[in-house]
Design goal:
By secondary structure, the chain is an alpha+beta fold. Helix content is 24%, strand content 29%.
Length: 181
């Protein structure tokens, strides 16, 4: 079995600009519709007029690695008091995650794996079942492997959710390196 977390070898984002944008967007949360993942809130990143730094980083990723199918991006806000208990993003629905039943009814694609970039709260860790205390700055996650986060401080993550590529496929794409342009 592959290790469920892989540190990204190439940086394609500007952490400071993304953090500034994420904080601004959290403060402006009344002007956009948040969606909740467990107790956490997320801000979709897709409109260059509203989230230009997020869109720029996402576009740079696509330029470097090519077409990876359907992907969504968001700023994920996890407060120190939030609970993000054991779950799989494409597993059975729980109050902490897992969207299988709800998404299947709506004919939406499930998250197969993700890239998580910590913008704030890097003293926190993620735990995968059987693999405790994984610290990271930016990593590919096998979100089909049970995982949880028990934050010790507020955390902001810039997250790409891959809907059509499995973890092993994305891992191979990233390990093979950026495509020649």
């Amino acid at each position: 079995m592959l290790h469920p977390i892989y540190d990204l070898p190439v940086r394609f984002w500007d952490k400071e600009k993304l953090l500034e944008e994420a904080i601004r967007e959290k403060e402006n949360s009344l002007v956009w519709k948040t969606f909740e993942i467990g107790n956490n809130k997320a801000r979709p990143v897709w409109n260059p007029d509203e989230t230009p730094e997020g869109v720029k980083a996402f576009d740079k990723f696509k330029e470097m690695y090519g077409d990876v199918g359907e992907v969504s991006a968001c700023y994920l806000y996890i407060d120190e008091t939030d609970v993000y208990d054991w779950h799989m993003d494409n597993g059975p629905m729980t109050k902490y995650g897992g969207h299988y039943n709800e998404v299947q009814q709506n004919n939406k694609k499930l998250t197969q794996c993700s890239i998580n970039i910590v913008l704030m709260g890097d003293e926190n860790f993620v735990e995968f079942e059987g693999i405790p205390n994984q610290y990271y700055e930016a990593a590919l996650f096998n979100t089909s492997h049970r995982h949880k986060s028990d934050p010790k401080s507020d955390k902001i993550i810039f997250k790409f959710s891959f809907k059509e590529k499995q973890y092993d496929e994305m891992l191979e794409i990233i390990q093979n390196g950026p495509i020649a342009s």
